[in-house]
Structures are given as structure tokens and as C-alpha cells.
Specification:
Distance between the termini: 45 Å
Strand content: 5-15%
Oligomer: single chain
Number of strands: 9
Pfam family, one: HTH_3
Number of helices: 12
Protein name: HTH cro/C1-type domain-containing protein
Organism: Natronorubrum texcoconense
Strand order of the largest sheet: 5-2-1-6-9-8-7
Largest sheet: 7 strands, mixed
Order of helices and strands: HHHHHHHHEEEEEHEHEHEEH
InterPro entries: Aldolase_II/adducin_N_sf, Cro/C1-type_HTH, Lambda_DNA-bd_dom_sf, ThiN
CATH topology of the largest domain: L-fuculose-1-phosphate Aldolase
CATH class of the largest domain: Alpha Beta
Domain HTH cro/C1-type: 20-48
Length: 299
């Protein structure tokens, strides 16, 4: 069993690093400078320079790889491109080459021929496949949860019922299409605690709010619930969010829908509570990371 990520690590990265190291040396950088730019050791640069690192000719000869290496080498050598910018550009190319039928996908299927014969209903390299779509949502959700876990003070925003950060697939129809934290996020001795990895179909309430907002035209794919506080609402408004109140009740779809229809640009929904119902704020956004960042900014 071999994953496409192993092709990236074992074939693509050594090849691109070798090409970049050579291109930077050609532009006058010392081995020490090349090592600093690429974030590797001088001995590794020496190995690249002497051809001691195996590279993949199919990757090295790809026109897009060649063009990006030249562009990045020019920018890094001149100081116009930072290592982080170069990393992002390479990541973008990796994603492009992983899609169905492209270079990395071909290399993967050459290594694991059974993938190509698996059937038309599922292709692991199809960027729109259900599996890859779901994994992208879960990956985004994990990153968002890490933001919250590492945010000192987030526990102060968790309501008594607990928080949940949720995210959905693009064509979500019901709670099974929404991923969240089983058991919710709780304040345990002043620390936000995520009890287990996110899964689909485990959030009922926050997922329902997200789906209801989407059903009534909100262009959002993630949400989180935090404790209600007028000061938090005011701060969110100051940060450019549009807020809308809805009435908590048995028909959450209608009440959230009415709020969205009144304020179509709303990215913050709230309800002030009722008998036995805790008041809550719901922050909506395009993905789990941006929603988590918004929540973190309130600390």
C-alpha cells in the first residue's frame, strides 16, 4: 500500500529541492545561503550538488516544474520571494499535479496499478470525489480545532452546553453531511478540551443552524457556538460582522431562515435564551479555520 503523499515525499520533493539547489547555486548563492533558503542542512545541499540524491526524471522534465523552479530561483536569489511564498507556490503545484490524470496521479497509479482499475465510480485522484471532499472538510476542521485548543482563553467562550466547531461538504443536505466533534468541546479546568477526532453526523444542533442558514442563502460552510454576551456581539460588529437574532424553538430551520432573510449578509446569529434554553452566539464562515480565527480574536 502506498499513498500519493509518499510519492510527493519520496520523489517530488527531492527532485524539486535538487533542481532549486542547483538553480540557486547557478545564481551565485553559496551552499550556506542555499541551505538557509531551502531550510535544509549544508550537507544536504552538497549531496544535491553532487547528485547523491535520487531524483525523478519525469518530474524534473515536466515543463511546469521547470518553469516554477526557474521562477522561484530568480525570486529567492533576488530577495523578491520569501521561502514561505516559495513553499506556497510549490504546494499549489503539488495539488495540481495530484489531480486525476496528471503527473503525480500517474506516478501513483504506476506504483499502485489497482487504483486505475478500481472502477469509474471512485478515483482517488479525482478532486471532486466524495472521499477527497470529505477528507478536505475533516482536515480543515482539525486545523480549526487546533487553533482553538492552542488559543489561551478560548475556554472562557465555551457555554455551559459546550461548543462545537462544524464544517460541511459543498452540497450538504442533512446533518450526516456536516462534520463536528463527538461530545462537543468542553471547558476542563480552564482549558478547551476536544474529546475525540471530528466525524460526520455527530452534531445535531450547531449543524442544524449551519444547514438552515445555508438553505436560506447564506454562503457559509462552517460554524461554531459560543456563549452569549452583548459585549461579544458588539465586538463582532466592530470587526465587520453582520449580526441577526433568531428565536430558539422547535423549528430551528424556520427561525434561522427568517433571520437570514432579514439580514442576508449575516455571519453571526444569536438567540437570547428562554426557559431552560441557554443564550448562544453562532459564528458562521467559509471554513473551519476562519471561524476558529474569529472566535480566537474575541479572547
Amino acid at each position: 500500500m502506498q499513498f500519493v503523499e509518499e510519492i510527493v515525499v519520496d520523489e517530488f520533493l527531492p527532485t524539486v529541492r535538487s533542481l532549486l539547489a542547483g538553480a540557486l547555486r547557478d545564481r551565485g548563492l553559496t551552499q550556506s545561503e542555499v541551505a538557509d533558503v531551502l531550510g535544509i542542512s549544508q550537507s544536504a545541499v552538497s549531496k544535491y550538488a553532487h547528485g547523491d540524491v535520487a531524483t525523478n526524471d519525469r518530474i524534473a522534465d515536466d515543463e511546469r516544474v521547470e518553469a516554477l523552479v526557474d521562477e522561484l530561483a530568480d525570486g529567492l536569489a533576488a530577495g523578491d520571494t520569501t521561502p514561505v511564498q516559495a513553499l506556497i507556490e510549490i504546494e499549489v503545484l503539488v495539488r495540481e499535479l495530484e489531480t486525476g490524470g496528471d503527473l503525480l496521479a500517474q506516478l501513483h497509479e504506476d506504483t499502485v496499478p489497482e487504483l486505475a482499475d478500481h472502477g469509474s465510480s471512485f478515483r482517488v485522484h479525482d478532486p471532486e470525489s466524495d472521499l477527497r471532499t470529505s477528507e478536505r472538510v475533516l482536515s480543515s476542521l482539525r486545523r480549526g480545532l487546533r487553533i482553538l485548543e492552542n488559543a489561551s482563553g478560548f475556554a472562557t467562550l465555551i457555554p455551559a452546553v459546550g461548543s462545537n466547531l462544524v464544517a460541511c461538504i459543498p452540497d450538504a443536505e442533512d446533518v450526516d453531511d456536516v462534520a463536528g466533534v463527538p461530545g462537543r468541546i468542553f471547558d476542563v479546568k480552564g482549558k478547551a478540551t476536544v474529546p475525540s477526532d471530528p466525524e460526520f453526523g455527530v452534531s445535531e444542533h450547531v449543524a442544524s443552524v449551519l444547514l438552515a442558514a445555508r438553505d436560506h442563502g447564506a454562503d457559509v460552510s462552517a460554524a461554531i457556538n459560543i456563549r452569549y454576551d452583548p459585549k461579544l456581539l458588539a465586538e463582532l460588529t466592530e470587526r465587520g460582522h453582520v449580526t441577526a437574532e433568531f428565536e430558539e424553538g422547535s423549528d430551528i430551520v424556520s427561525s434561522v431562515g427568517a433571520a437570514i432573510e432579514d439580514e442576508p449578509e449575516a455571519t453571526v446569529l444569536y438567540q437570547t435564551g428562554a426557559m431552560g434554553i441557554e443564550p448562544l452566539i453562532y459564528v458562521l464562515g467559509s471554513d473551519a479555520e476562519s471561524v476558529a480565527d474569529t472566535a480566537r480574536s474575541l479572547i
